[in-house]
Design goal:
With 77 residues, the chain is mainly alpha-helical. It has helices at residues 8-32, 37-71.
Length: 77
Amino acid sequence: MLKGKIAGRDFYHLQERIAEKRGQMIQAANKNGLSSLITLKISQELDGLLNQYAKDGQTIKNRNVKKEEAVTPRKAI
């Protein structure tokens, strides 16, 4: 998984992995059924990737907010 600083390239790679895993899950569900063990296993793996995506996205968002605060001067009251 991604650790430390999150580069745009890493975030994009995670998006690709999510799309690939989603495709695998759909294929498994079509072949074996929605409640098959293999479909459920792939679904759990997809959940993990989606959780990582949400966490990394929030980290990037927070980092951008901090950059904006550092650049934007505060108004005097």
